[in-house]
Design a protein that fits this description.
Blueprint lengths: L1 H20 L9 H35 L3 E3 L6 E3 L10 E2 L4 E2 L11 H4 L7
Antiparallel strand pairs: 1-2, 3-4
Helix pairs in contact: 1-2
């Protein structure tokens, strides 16, 4: 996809340079024709620059949406596209949680918590 971005930019760069360097076709000494030609070149360069930016934005969005790697939401590691689990932390993309099971905390029992029942 990088080649498409480079080719797009190169094509528009050549196009803009060609417009700027092009002959205006005016007769020598015709000030009005020269001024109008310069205005037309300015409008053409502005339009080409706008088209270049729009195309570049579209290509960047396409590149972002089709990138071959994902970012793990748990550890931030890079995961190759098509994988269902992170190789760094085990995050399961299909379930949205870690595949390594963490034992649920147990409720403390009365003997270990220091509470004693007093009878009497």
């Amino acid at each position: 996809m990088t080649w498409a971005l480079s080719a797009w930019s190169l094509i528009f760069l050549i196009w803009i340079i060609t417009v700027i360097a092009g002959s205006d076709g005016c007769h020598t000494g015709d000030q009005f024709c020269g001024d109008m030609s310069n205005i037309a070149k300015g409008i053409a360069v502005a339009g080409l620059t706008l088209l270049w930016l729009i195309g570049l934005l579209v290509l960047l969005v396409v590149r972002f949406m089709t990138r071959p790697t994902m970012i793990c939401p748990n550890c931030g590691g890079s995961v190759k596209g098509g994988r269902i689990a992170c190789t760094m932390c085990g995050y399961d993309f299909t379930k949205g949680m870690n595949s390594t099971h963490v034992a649920a905390p147990r409720a403390p029992d009365a003997a270990s918590s220091g509470f004693r029942s007093h009878s009497g």
